UniProtKB/TrEMBL annotation:
Membrane-spanning ranges: 7-28
Single annotated GO MF: monooxygenase activity
InterPro entries attached to this UniProt entry: Cyt_P450, Cyt_P450_CS, Cyt_P450_E_grp-I, Cyt_P450_sf
Superkingdom classification of source: Eukaryota
Keyword annotations of the record: Heme, Iron, Membrane, Metal-binding, Monooxygenase, Oxidoreductase, Transmembrane, Transmembrane helix
Protein name in the entry: Cytochrome P450
Family in the record: Belongs to the cytochrome P450 family.
Cofactor(s) for this UniProt protein: heme
Cited SUPFAM superfamilies: Cytochrome P450
Organism: Gigaspora margarita
Positions annotated to bind heme: 476
Amino acid sequence: MHSLKGLIPTILDLIPLAILLYILKFYYDYFTRSIPYPGPFPLPIIGNLHQYFYHRNDMSSWHRQLSSRYGGIFELYFGSNKYLMISDARIVERILNTAKNNNYFVCIETEKGLDKLQKGNNGLLFNADLKSWAFIKKVFVKTIASPNAIKTAIKFVGNVFQDLEIIWDNLIDNQGQFLNDEQKKFVDIDFIPWSKNIFAECITLLIASRQFNLLSTHYNRISNINPDDQKNSYEEFLDRLIIVSDCVQYYTTIPSFIRNLPIINLYTNYLYKNLLWTRNYASNLVKKRREEIERIENKEELTLDFLNMLLTTNASMSDEEVGDNIAEIISEGINNPSNTLSFIIYYVSNNPDIEKSVLDEIEKIFDLDSNFKVTYEDLCKLEYIDAVIKEVLRVRPVMAMISRFSDNPDQIDNYKIPASTQLVIDVIGLHMNPKYWEEPTKFNPSRFLSSNNKNNDTFDTNKNAFMNFGGGLRMCPGKQLAMTQLKILVVLLYSKYKIEVITKDPSTRNNINTQCNELKISISRRM
Ligand code: HEM
């Protein structure tokens, strides 16, 4: 006789049943979805993530394939979350509009993990609350994007570059080698940390009027002056901000029940603790600044940088909230332009004709003695360098995808957009689409020159096919600053140094190809 105990299913027996029910529910929802769009067939739990990881190193051609097979709107599943991918410029134009009451103001639904990180109603990037977003945007525009702020930024980049020049010249003198019959010394460097430190110095000067001597600290470490130096706390803060970006991506794509599974929750805790560390660090900086401001009798003496302005115009913001804002701008102000500068060096130095045109333009516009200064007016004349930067951002856009969330149902042309749907503007798909670009895979800055009429027509009529800084209400507010900084740095780097690229593929090491992970270059003094 069977014992009763044998008839009661054990938890282990129930697992296959639970999985089967989950799969049935997944495909029931999939086949009965209200507005079905075409797209690659998803698997339960992972959706299309396996395809994403398979194509991670060549996202451009994957997105090209998907948009040519499935059209201007198609579905992709990241885990069990459905995303509508948009790669038609006409639809993009309707989604990215500048009206404050537009249906697509929110980037990512707050309940998708942002609430756990307290990021849904603070800062700019993920803020879903129009009122607090508009306040911070106003302060940003005044202190970072106004003509005065841009002129201040030009001065800061010039000063930071002077420091870099002294350090690089020391490096070349002390560690450089003569190669073959060359009279000048060359030294090989890893460009990425230098690039990050340049932008880090500039952005902290601009938003908080502080300098952390990151360039000389980096020099001391790599040239064995202080090899065992622990990273100072600001360097650690910058390193951890990169993990914070991973943390936000992780919380917004991985459902909470998976984040909380045993073992996986160790990683979740690691990311979350890191976020708390940076939040605590930034709020301490803010607290100190608040105390300094209180000690100043004549408040008119205060430099009106982003931090001081936030502290003096909105008394109700806590140190943590102000700190979060500072951390966000520092992170955006370093990683995006530094990634772009690294790719600029990669493309310019690997294309002798393009490098020659860059050098010709520099010579035409600047009076090249060793102490020449770059002015705002001169930067406006740089048409070719401007085109090079745009072309780099076309082929290697910093953000391969731009998110928007639909509040209400909408209809764009023949396409119905359901309410509460996560839309993703497929930036690479747009940038690589032959409908909008002649020979899209070719690196050709001339397509952006006004003298090149044919391509320019294409560019003008398809401006929504060029999403390098996003668009509409939430277009990147740092665009002007970034373009200015990049132009100055291209002028200064190429006029002062001869640069050769050693790295074959800057996007190796298992990451998507819009991220420059490695850039070894060889530098020697030009003048
Ligand atoms: C080459 C450099 C840069 C590129 C390519 C870039 C690109 C972008 C893109 C594509 C977006 C999303 C726009 C959208 O959703 O429509 C964005 C947003 C943003 N960027 Fe940039 N960015 C750069 C530099 C900067 C800099 C230097 C700063 C700050 C100083 C900055 C601050 C921001 C902020 C705060 C947002 C969020 C705006 C909002 O949601 O309202 N970016 N950026």
